[in-house]
Design a protein that fits this description.
- This protein is α/β, with parallel strands linked by helices.
- It has two domains: 124 residues, 2-Layer Sandwich (Chitobiase, domain 2), CATH 3.30.379.10; 115 residues, no CATH class.
- The strands form three sheets. It has a six-stranded mixed β-sheet, covered by helices on one side.
- Helix 1 packs parallel to helix 2.
- It is elongated.
- The two termini are 35 Å apart.
Length: 248
């Protein structure tokens, strides 16, 4: 069991590796108790989202109990069941797998955020579409372009795709919106992500982008994504050896 207490004293949160600071509400001490499979990473993420919602709008009641369980015998993968419990009031969330339990927890977090926890309906939810994905044209480098790198926005975002913080936030946001597939598209990514012993000069160190002003005359065929003049005026936006890129 993990217990989270909100009061005028310090807030103690015993979640996997997460700790929150003190918080006070005008309506007196409030406790939120989490039980069940709370150490599972997906469920821990849902608990974090619930607590963030409480931080934004306050707790909907003085004491709240939320139980998380995983039961693949009665529910499909990604499916979940929400049941109300009493004494103390709260919810029992059962997922067909850890992801389903997370989705049930996210329903609770969203209901708190819009002040609609009392209207959160009991029952089972199952995905209508099993795989819900995003096609991400990833601009790895001026020399390994994606399908739309001949645009100012893609050149500006080349450094971002080499930021761990960006990917943490992006993947968290995907989970919040129930996306579960991410595809990365690039015309020829390999010089930025692999080392071939027979061709050592192919592996690209550092991350480049052009300083050349781009126009609207590029073809949409993917055949002229990098023009010679774009390579004559470049800036190094991040120093990385190929081994660091592979590790990333």
């Amino acid at each position: 069991m993990v217990r989270t207490l909100f009061s005028k004293s310090a807030l103690v949160c015993l979640l996997a590796s997460t700790c929150f600071s003190s918080r006070t509400w005008a309506d007196g001490p409030t406790s939120i108790e989490f039980r069940g499979d709370v150490r599972v990473p997906q469920i821990a993420f849902a608990i974090d989202e619930i607590l963030q919602s409480v931080f934004v709008v306050g707790s909907p009641q003085p004491r709240l109990m939320i139980e998380f369980h995983v039961d693949g015998t009665s529910l499909p993968a990604q499916g979940y069941r929400i049941e109300r419990i009493e004494n103390p009031a709260g919810f029992r969330i059962t997922g067909g797998d850890a992801t389903g339990a997370m989705y049930g927890g996210l329903d609770v977090a969203e209901a708190i955020r819009i002040n609609a926890l009392s209207e959160l309906a009991e029952g089972e939810r199952r995905p209508h579409i099993e795989r819900r994905g995003i096609k991400f044209n990833i601009p790895l480098d001026l020399r390994t372009p994606s399908y739309s790198d001949n645009a100012d926005s893609f050149q500006a975002n080349i450094p971002e795709v080499w930021s761990v913080a960006f990917w943490h936030e992006f993947l968290d946001e995907m989970a919040r919106h129930r996306y579960n597939v991410l595809t990365l598209w690039n015309l020829h990514p390999f010089p930025s992500i692999v080392r071939v012993p027979e061709f050592p000069d192919v592996a690209l160190n550092d991350v480049w982008r052009t300083r050349v002003r781009l126009d609207d005359a590029f073809s949409h065929s993917g055949s002229d994504m990098v023009r010679p003049d774009m390579l004559r005026d470049v800036e190094i936006v991040r120093r990385m050896r190929i081994d660091e890129k592979i590790a990333f």
